[in-house]
Amino acid sequence: MRVLIRFRQAFVDRWYWVQQVLVTAFAAALSWQVGDHILKNGGVVAAIVASLTVRSSLHKSVREGFGQVIGSSVGAGAALASVHFFGLGLITVGLTVLICLIAARVLHLGEVAAINVPVTALIVIGPGLSQNNAADRLISTITGALIAIVCSIFAHPKTPAGRTIDRISSLTDRSAVLLARMAEGVLEDFSQDNTGRWLARGRLLAEEIPSIRSQALEARVFAKWLPTVRSENAEKLYLRGVAVEHTIIQVRAISRALFDIALNGGLDEVIASEIAMVLSTVSYALSVSTENFKFDPYARLKDPITGEIRMSAEQATATVINNADHFEQGQLARIMTVISSVMVIADSLDQISPAIRKVPTPQGPTSQQILSKSPIDQAKIWQQRLFKLLPTPIRKYLE
Description:
Shape: elongated
Radius of gyration: 28 Å
Mean pLDDT: 77
Helix content: over 70%
CATH class of the largest domain: Mainly Alpha
CATH topology of the largest domain: Methane Monooxygenase Hydroxylase, Chain G, domain 1
């Protein structure tokens, strides 16, 4: 019985992964059936494409499905042209892979899709290449990609907004825990080894920033066309994600400043007590903010103890200034870095900082975009370039 309970718990703890695996297997099986029904022996290609395309979010599946179809179409066209001039062999395969990789780069599909596109194209142009075979396999590719996109809706137990809420809550909790450990360590074990561990944890937190940004962006994008999601709620989540990003950056800055302080002589008892109090206050504020956010992520922001953070920071500043003669300038600057980072965290919790509300945030890394520019912008650029190629008299006439 214990073995069975442990076996069951292993799947319960990994339910997100289990659901994605089951959905991918179902998408592959369905693609096989549909592909064979549409075309003779078309199920293999459809099942492979479906397995490569299903992702944990519809946003990624649409992007990579789009890339699979476009990349495979370009690759199949290049392969047919190469076969016509060079025959099926070394040159054809090389040109197909080369052109598919270039197409994936132009579409900014990311590393995973950049590999999937030439693989799919090689399947499309496999043995027995002809115009009919390539067209049939391309149809199978489209079939598998479409089924994968539909099935990816069920590849995750939560909506994009739900995943964004979980991600924000998790990273805020981790930031609060790290700050609490730093507050404890400043008083008890302010050593180079301990501060080095804080810095390592701060760096790990910072590495999560692209994931929370892309997740918040996904929730924002889907709210624009999904009627069940309110756009204003998605905007609130996106703004909260930006605020958490700013908070994580400051937590890493604090860990780095404490590491440098420990390397340069540490802190005396009075200043250490003030810094510990400030960090403890911020940690508690983040914990309370997370609980309120989990309870109602779309509620209007209240003052999550940021007033206490600012009071504690002002008190610490006054203490540091009164004892400024005991520190060299570099050490004084590092201590003030900790306090100023705390003030930025308070502004982030309130979401009143112009850096959050008035400065546009990048829409995610270029690798996450389907196209680097919209087709309309691309058309305008090419129109201008073609216009410049015209003779001067004609250009003057058209102007």
